[in-house]
Amino acid sequence: MFSLITKTLRMAKCKFADAFKEEREKSGIGKMDDQGDPVVMLLNHKDVRKAAHNYKVFSSEAVPGRIVVPSEVNIRTTRQIPFEVDPPMHKEYRSLLEAWFKRPLQDTYEEKLTTIISTVLDDVLSKDKVDVVSDLALVIQSRALTLLLNVPFDKSVKWISWGTHVFRSEGEALDGDKAAILYNYIDEEIDNAIANPADNLYSTLLAAEVNGKKLTKEEVKGVLILTFAGGRDTVINALTNMMSYFSANKKALDYIRSKPEIIKTAVEEFIRYFSPLTHMGRVVTEDTTVCEHAVKADSRISLCWASANRDEKVFENPDEVILERKVNPHVGFGFSHHNCLGATHARQIMRITLKLLAEKVSDITVLEAEENIENLGEFTRKVGYNSLKATFKKR
Amino acid sequence: MAKITFITSSNEKITVAATEGSVMELAVNNNVQGIDGDCGGVCSCATCHVFVAPEDVDKVGVASEIETDMLELADDANEYSRLCCQIPVTDAIDNVVFTVAK
Ligand code: HEM
Ligand code: HEM
Ligand code: FES
């Protein structure tokens, strides 16, 4: 959901620079225009957390699509749930969903996810050269999503065939026609679930009630779109970027293999350092100030997770990946009411992938990289790769 | 060896013992309801929020600045709040009682 993709072809170093450092230290805010609806970006960790908490002044419940940057108001009318709903209603929806989204902690889920990831890694190891984005990250993400929705494994074939560009066409940030592929698909799957109820997320949502009323089809759709869209590029970037890290830090795989107990802190550190979701908007409901800067009612701000995660006032050596960082109050999964609902699933994917990598792989070497650079007004930020060609060696 | 008691929001009392790790890990390993420990204990998720029994506050000690900042924005936090991933299990906290926040 970000701005234009520019392409740079060069040999990869795993360097994810802090795009916001100068402005964060100078003024604490950044500014960007977005289709005539400008955004004031909050860059300090403290300001980001406070604003995320203060939903009354910084609301998620604007016209659907407006809290997303670039704005999606022109390409959709469906409200994403619970993402574009403020408390107290937000909590009603969240409590419906929370138990389902904690399933990744169950032993059987973990076992199935391990099988999925192990199979993909074995396949990658059997090839001379792979594209990490399309041969590894996209495949793991799509197959893992069948577990989260509890639908047949075959469903992932279609999701993989959409490629990483399901919502975008070359050079265009937002593409309504492409988004329609997803919308139509979800409509069909909801109709299927109405005709043949099963123990999956579709049917669970269709049967669910909020305040004594069944969710409407539109509401069910709002939840599912978010599950597909929010968990796609984020997970793909997190996995791909982690592979590029191992190519640039050759000793790290051995180190993790010798100390598997650091896997959890390592995953949190990767989420902090890579911040797969750069920022998310809010609409200001009354004239106020952010970081001593006046903002008007009905204007937009954004909570810049990526900047907050490099705030030197909170993190020592913020630009270094410290796999054993013990205290790491990152906001990579957001903060407060809207913190990431898919985080349990995403963390399990990352942890299991890391564990299996350390067990199975002795070396990852990047051959060719095409970076995915976001343009955010005065800032440019590398969020991941459009493609990352690499070799994987068996242990 | 420290013996620690958790009281959950459904008023279940669970007493367990350990010699190492954090109080969050102890709770998660014993399936204490309401302590999820999502972030694995790095002070980023607040899903390990507990209230320390008033008489145990001295034994448990105080929160660091980073933990305090986190708690400041947590639901229903009060002066007895702690994120229990930040409390190591040691003999010093033997017989302490924690009430789970949610
Ligand atoms: C209906 C729901 C959504 C739609 C239609 C949508 C649409 C898009 C589009 C069009 C892009 C490509 C932008 C580009 O090429 O520059 C994109 C990328 C992305 N979206 Fe969304 N989005 C949705 C929801 C979400 C949510 C809820 C999240 C996270 C919580 C999210 C996270 C991302 C991320 C991280 C990217 C990757 C940016 C990049 O790699 O360039 N999306 N989305
Ligand atoms: C590494 C991967 C991921 C990252 C970094 C990430 C990041 C985020 C962030 C920063 C937010 C907060 C947005 C806000 O405050 O407005 C968020 C919300 C959300 N994410 Fe994720 N996400 C990831 C994976 C996923 C996955 C796998 C799913 C589901 C399949 C998902 C579903 C959601 C949903 C539903 C919300 C909205 C929660 C609410 O409004 O209550 N995310 N995510
Ligand atoms: S376990 Fe995440 S803050 Fe304690």
> Tally of extended strands of chain A?
13
Question: Could you tell me which ligands this complex binds, including any ions or cofactors?
Answer: protoporphyrin IX containing FE, FE2/S2 (inorganic) cluster
Q: What is Rg of chain A?
A: 20 Å
What kind of assembly state do the chains in view correspond to? Answer: heterodimer
GO molecular function (chain B): 2 iron, 2 sulfur cluster binding; electron transfer activity; metal ion binding
GO biological process, one term (chain B): P450-containing electron transport chain
Pfam families (chain B): Fer2 (PF00111)
Cofactor (chain B): [2Fe-2S] cluster
Describe the structure in your own words.
The complex is a heterodimer of chains A (395) and B (102). By secondary structure, chain A is α+β, with helices and mostly antiparallel strands. Chain A has helices at residues 21-26, 45-53, 89-101, 107-125, 132-149, 155-161, 176-195, 201-207, 217-230, 233-248, 252-258, 263-274, 305-308, 343-360; strands spanning 6-10, 29-32, 39-42, 58-59, 130-131, 209-210, 213-214, 280-284, 288-290, 293-295, 300-303, 361-376, 379-394. By secondary structure, chain B is an alpha+beta fold. Chain B contains three helices and five strands. Classes of the chains: A alpha+beta (395), B alpha+beta (102). Chain A binds chain B through residues 46, 49-50, 53, 102, 264-265, 267-268, 314, 325-331, 333, 335-336, 339, 343-344, 347, and chain B through 36, 38-45, 64, 66, 69-70, 73, 86. The complex binds protoporphyrin IX containing FE (2 copies) and FE2/S2 (inorganic) cluster. FE2/S2 (inorganic) cluster (FES) binds next to loops of chain B.
Brief rundown of the structure:
The complex is a heterodimer of chains A (395) and B (102). Chain A is built from 14 helices and 13 strands. With 395 residues, chain A is an alpha+beta fold.
